[in-house]
């Protein structure tokens, strides 16, 4: 140990914690409005926003209430949003996902008309909100999700979202080859400017529970997504998924969920040089709210600590249901 002449420690880390200004000066990680992406739900056939019980403060939006929410986010300086659609009708292939008049396509156009280039408009690209069985792809005779048949449909969804004016498509279905298939479909349709944010390392997580309420998804026959989403036991496999997605042309990559996979975020940061996102998912958000409602946690402090941890682990930006609250907080500071 480094000791001074009287035998005391020569360096005292507490000197660097002596005042708020000192702590701000030496902070290694920063969290600000530029790091936030707001996930937003838009539901077909409603005229008023409908609160989601399991996600306090989050609603399924009508087309009108979505525009109002997005305008507020733009005024707060939030740089990006990601849209999820809740269609009125579902079918076995999820055709609502690529219908030019489907709810997400209409919402993309609405939002773009509202905020133009002042926000990056992303859309989740998957079929689960649109299929009656709740899987992220088409199901074959044996009840398995057919990878390659699904890729063709993802290409259609990408082209429909691009035609509606989306800036970034975010494939979340964990089909092999989805990034390449979507890039090919977009480029073949002259949508070379549309970027791909790949949910590269997406785990089969228990923390998606409240989201499935938000989009009215129940997986048929008590099924799950373990046949296509990653096993929580595996981190090296995540490195392979990330590497392959970048090779297939992903412009940005994501790790999801965030908090239970901070190690994967750190590995991803070392591995890839494209922008890295992390998704603080519905169950992570809901758990904090539930504890705070009982007075067991200070919501704002706990949320800030988790978001900072996700940044510290290596994420460049965070998809979080706290986006608006945090943007309001940062605007006051
Ligand atoms: C799939 C999708 C899911 C989430 C984002 N995209 C659900 C799933 O894979 O079951 C979860 C997001 C969250 O829990 O906040 N379209």
From TrEMBL:
Pathway: Porphyrin-containing compound metabolism; protoporphyrin-IX biosynthesis; coproporphyrinogen-III from 5-aminolevulinate: step 1/4. The active site is at residues 202, 256. GO terms for cellular component: cytosol. Mg(2+) binds at residue 241. It comes from the Bacteria. InterPro entries: ALAD, ALAD_AS, Aldolase_TIM. Coiled coil: none annotated. 5-aminolevulinate 2 binds at residues 282, 321. Keywords: Heme biosynthesis, Lyase, Magnesium, Metal-binding, Porphyrin biosynthesis. GO terms for biological process: protoporphyrinogen IX biosynthetic process. Residues 1-21 are annotated as: Disordered. Its EC number is 4.2.1.24. PROSITE patterns: D_ALA_DEHYDRATASE. It catalyses: 2 5-aminolevulinate = porphobilinogen + 2 H2O + H(+). SUPFAM superfamilies: Aldolase. It is an enzyme of class 4 (lyase). The keyword Lipid metabolism does not apply. 5-aminolevulinate 1 binds at residues 212, 225. GO terms for molecular function: porphobilinogen synthase activity; zinc ion binding. Homooctamer. NCBIfam families: PRK09283.1. PANTHER family: DELTA-AMINOLEVULINIC ACID DEHYDRATASE. Belongs to the ALAD family. Catalyzes an early step in the biosynthesis of tetrapyrroles. Binds two molecules of 5-aminolevulinate per subunit, each at a distinct site, and catalyzes their condensation to form porphobilinogen. This is Delta-aminolevulinic acid dehydratase. The lineage of its organism: Bacteria, Bacillati, Actinomycetota, Acidimicrobiia, Acidimicrobiales.
């Amino acid at each position: 140990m480094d000791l001074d002449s009287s035998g005391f420690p020569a360096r005292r880390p507490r000197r660097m914690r002596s005042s708020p200004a000192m702590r701000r000066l030496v902070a290694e990680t920063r969290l600000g409005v530029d790091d936030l992406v707001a996930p937003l739900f838009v539901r077909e056939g409603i005229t008023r926003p409908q609160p989601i019980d399991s996600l306090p403060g989050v609603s399924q939006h009508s087309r009108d209430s979505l525009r109002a929410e997005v305008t507020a986010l733009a005024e707060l300086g939030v740089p990006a949003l990601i849209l999820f659609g809740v269609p009125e009708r579902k079918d076995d292939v999820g055709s609502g996902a690529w219908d030019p008049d489907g709810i997400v396509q209409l919402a993309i156009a609405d939002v773009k008309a509202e905020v133009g280039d002042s926000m990056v408009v992303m859309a989740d690209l998957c079929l689960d909100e649109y299929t009656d069985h709740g899987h992220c792809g088409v199901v074959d005779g044996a009840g398995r999700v057919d990878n390659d048949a699904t890729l063709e449909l993802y290409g259609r969804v990408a082209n429909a979202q691009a035609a509606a004016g989306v800036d970034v498509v975010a494939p979340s279905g964990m089909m092999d080859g989805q990034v390449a298939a979507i890039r090919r479909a977009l480029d073949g349709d002259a949508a070379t400017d549309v970027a791909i944010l790949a949910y590269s390392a997406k785990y089969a997580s228990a923390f998606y529970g409240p989201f499935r309420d938000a989009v009215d998804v129940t997986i048929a026959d008590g099924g799950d997504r373990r046949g296509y989403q990653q096993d929580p036991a595996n981190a090296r496999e995540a490195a392979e998924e990330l590497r392959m997605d970048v090779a297939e042309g992903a412009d940005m990559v994501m790790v999801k969920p965030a908090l239970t996979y901070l190690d994967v975020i750190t590995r991803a940061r070392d591995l890839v040089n494209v922008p890295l996102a992390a998704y603080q998912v519905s169950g992570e958000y809901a758990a904090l709210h539930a504890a705070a409602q009982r007075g067991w946690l200070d919501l704002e402090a706990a949320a800030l600590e988790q978001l900072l941890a996700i940044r510290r682990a290596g994420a460049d930006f965070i998809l979080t249901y706290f986006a608006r609250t945090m943007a309001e907080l940062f605007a006051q500071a």
